[in-house]
Each structure stands twice: as structure tokens, then as C-alpha cells.
Design a protein that fits this description.
By secondary structure, the chain is α+β, with helices and mostly antiparallel strands. Among the domains are: 154 residues, 3-Layer(bba) Sandwich (FAD/NAD(P)-binding domain), CATH 3.50.50; 102 residues, no CATH class. It contains eleven helices and 21 strands. The strands form five sheets. The chain has a six-stranded mixed sheet with strand order 9-2-1-13-21-20, sandwiched between helices. Strands 14, 16, 17, 18 and 19 form a five-stranded antiparallel sheet that branches. It has a four-stranded mixed sheet with strand order 6-7-5-15. Helix 1 links the parallel strand 1 and strand 2. Helix 1 runs parallel beside helix 5, helix 1 packs across helix 11 and helix 2 crosses helix 11.
């Protein structure tokens, strides 16, 4: 790309790449460069999630999560079929294991129907075991539109599309500074330009789009903005069912989630490569990209602890946080949680698996921001909060962000 691009997208995760693809294609294509600080695409949240294509069951009807997840899943399934990326619509069970969860299960069914999901089934114990012979519970909701997918493969295919449409994906390019030059434009006036200083050189552009995930708030501040949220990282650890016990689960089994939190609880997930994972937990991470329990960053930890909203969140959720922390390092505790859904699971059936770090925006009042959130300024669009189901919804989110960026141009 000889001339300066119209748009620079910061972040080559699945949302950034989907946005770049939407900008580079369509009836009004824009010239695009994607910059990524790592040496590959999908290095963080995209490459460390559960690999589940969510149906849209959990989200408040009318919310961006609900609308973009349902549309995004349809787009994702079509994209994977066209590009030969692994995707399987296998369905899942959401299981109520105690009486107080039955009303929550009914509410999930209501939400799913309001969000347009098809084929939802409320099941009793016998019907549950027709789907999952080893499951235990009082009742379940079968969600046939849930699937499993190779999200890193999707990201690589999106990057290829961006390049074939005339855009660029530059890895090893960390953003260092954002400068604004010129005026607002107009007849006879200098055109406003944004100059991004990176470790791979300077890149002038007309619009900056930030899809920076775990560093979304930092990139916004680097751009001269003051977001009203802070990214607080939560690590989730997974275990893998050993081969001898992997047959205890056929597809996906989830508990009824606690509506106070955006996390879905310990569940069973079949991956596209055949592995059966159990997890995750949700514990505070002391490094934004810290996938190991011992990983620590002083600057990342201070960023969390210096945010007043973190302490308000911590005070109101201390009991849950301590329970999650106790489970984090204990195979036996993880197995106990898994036995709530599949009683035959034993601690010795679990082998250490991978982990991921979720970028969760927390506001000044200590609330975990539930919906997707965007921040716009002149010549800029920032994706501030895009937790699950952002990977599932990525193609739809990309359309929305691209539309906002084109309005800036």
C-alpha cells in the first residue's frame, strides 16, 4: 500500500480483523492497515477462548450482545463453510441442579425465544440423558444452535481476506504514540490526519480504529481520551478429561449461570480437535496477558488496584472471589465442581489444560460492564468492552465498527 491508508486498525484479534475486512470490502471500500504488536494474529483472547460459537441464549433481549451474537453466529457459520474453517453445530445442555435454578432456566428459555433462537427444548432428567447419558440434574434446556469452532482459524482466514482485498496486516508493530495533525478539513483548510508511531515506523491515516482487547482502555488513553472504564483481567483455567473418561461427555454441558456475573461457571466443552475440556474458573489476573498462575506485571497490577471501581467490585463480590481462588489451584476442587453436572468425574480424570485471560471492563461504580461498549471521538472509534460472545459476534461487530469508522471518514 503506497499511499497512506484511510484507516488503521489496532489489534489483529478476531474483532479487529473482522472490522478490517468489513472496511476493505463492500460497496465503499476503504484502504486499511492492521497493526499487531505480536508476531501473529489471534495471539491473545481469540486464541485462548473456549472455542464455542454461542447461540445468543444468555443476553438481555434488545442488547447489543443479543442482537450481534445472533447475527454474528449466522455470519460466522456461513464464513466457516465458505472458507473451510472447522465449525460444528452440536448443541448444548444448560442444566439446573437445584430448585432455585429452575426459575433461572425458565428465564433463559424466555430470553432465548425473545432473541430468535429456534428449537429450544425444556427437558426432564430422562430426556436430558438421551443427549448426555452421564449428566445429572433436575431439568435442562437443550440449545441446538450452539456450536464449536476454530477461532484462530477464522482469524487467519479473515487476515487473508483483508490482504486479498488490498489491505495489510502488519505484525510486530506495537503502537507507541498517537499524534493529531492538521485541522478539521474543509475547503481551503488542511486535512486532519492522525499519525500512529509504532515500533515498525510511522503510519498516517484519516481514522484510527482500536480493537485492542486487553489493552483497550490504555489505547484509548494513549489516543488522548479518558474512558470511564478500566480493563480488569480475569484468568480462566481449563482442565482436560483424560482419554479414558472423555466418553462421559458427548458435546457441551453448562450449568445455569449466576445472573449477577458475566461468567458462565465450570462447564464441559468439546473442542473441534476432539479434546474435552472442563472449566474455566474466573480469578483476578495480575498480568493482562498472564496465562500462568505465577505471571505478574507490576504495571498491570497497579492499573487494577488504582481503579476505585475495582475495590467497589471486590467488596461486593468477596465471597465469590475467594471461592474461585480456592478452586484455581486445586484439581480436587475443580473435579468437585464438575461432578455437579457429571457425577462420575474424578480428580484423577483431569489433566492440566490451557488458560485464557478475559478483558472485563469495570466502571467507576464497580459494576462489571455487561454489554459491548464503544467510544468515539473525532477520527477515532474504540472498542472498549468486547468480552464473550465477541468472538462469536465478531463479523457482526466488525460491520458496526466499520460503519462508524466510515462515518468518521
Amino acid at each position: 500500500m503506497a499511499r497512506s491508508p484511510d484507516v488503521v486498525v489496532v489489534g489483529a484479534g478476531i474483532v479487529g480483523l473482522a472490522t478490517a475486512r468489513a472496511l476493505a470490502g463492500g460497496e465503499r471500500p476503504s484502504s486499511v492497515v492492521v497493526i499487531e504488536k505480536e508476531d501473529r494474529v489471534a495471539a491473545h483472547q481469540t486464541g485462548h477462548n473456549s472455542g464455542v460459537a454461542h447461540s445468543g441464549l444468555y443476553y438481555r433481549p434488545g442488547s447489543q450482545k443479543a442482537e450481534l451474537c445472533v447475527r454474528g453466529r449466522a455470519l460466522l457459520e456461513r464464513f466457516c463453510a465458505e472458507r473451510g474453517v472447522a465449525f460444528e453445530r452440536c448443541g448444548k445442555l444448560v442444566v439446573a441442579t437445584c430448585g432455585q435454578e429452575l426459575a433461572r432456566l425458565d428465564e433463559l428459555a424466555r430470553r432465548g425465544a425473545a432473541n430468535g433462537l429456534q428449537g429450544l427444548e425444556r427437558l426432564g432428567p430422562e430426556a436430558m440423558r438421551e443427549h448426555e447419558p452421564h449428566v445429572a440434574g433436575l431439568a435442562a434446556l437443550f440449545v441446538p444452535e450452539t456450536g464449536i469452532v476454530d477461532f484462530p482459524g477464522v482469524a487467519r482466514a479473515l487476515a487473508q481476506d483483508v490482504q486479498e482485498l488490498g489491505g495489510e496486516v502488519r505484525t510486530g508493530a506495537r503502537l507507541l504514540a498517537v499524534q493529531t495533525r492538521g485541522g478539521p478539513g474543509g475547503v481551503g483548510g488542511p486535512a486532519r490526519r492522525i499519525v500512529l508511531e509504532t515500533t515498525a515506523g510511522s503510519i498516517p491515516c484519516r481514522c484510527l480504529v482500536a480493537c485492542a482487547g486487553l489493552h483497550a482502555d490504555r489505547i484509548a488513553r494513549l489516543s488522548g481520551l479518558e474512558p470511564d472504564v478500566r480493563i480488569v483481567p480475569f484468568r480462566g483455567d481449563y482442565w482436560v478429561l483424560a482419554d479414558a473418561s472423555a466418553g462421559l461427555v458427548k458435546n457441551l454441558i453448562y450449568p445455569v449461570p449466576d445472573p449477577r456475573y458475566p461468567f458462565l461457571g465450570v462447564h464441559f466443552t468439546r473442542r473441534v480437535d476432539g479434546r474435552m475440556e472442563v472449566g474455566p474458573n474466573a480469578v483476578l489476573a495480575f498480568k493482562r496477558e498472564g496465562y500462568g498462575r505465577a505471571n505478574f506485571s507490576a504495571s498491570d497490577t497497579w492499573s487494577t488496584l488504582a481503579w476505585g471501581g475495582f475495590w467497589r467490585m471486590a467488596r461486593s463480590n468477596m465471597g465469590t472471589a475467594l471461592a474461585e481462588l480456592a478452586r484455581a489451584g486445586s484439581r480436587a476442587a475443580f473435579a468437585a465442581a464438575a461432578r455437579g453436572l457429571v457425577p462420575e468425574v474424578r480428580a484423577e480424570d483431569l489433566a492440566p489444560g490451557g488458560s485464557g485471560v478475559r478483558a472485563q471492563a469495570v466502571d467507576r461504580k464497580g459494576a462489571l460492564v455487561d454489554d459491548f461498549r464503544f467510544l468515539e471521538a473525532e477520527g477515532m472509534v474504540h472498542v472498549l468492552n468486547a468480552p464473550s460472545p465477541a468472538a462469536t459476534a465478531s463479523l457482526a461487530i466488525g460491520e458496526v465498527v466499520a460503519q462508524r469508522a466510515r462515518a468518521q471518514l
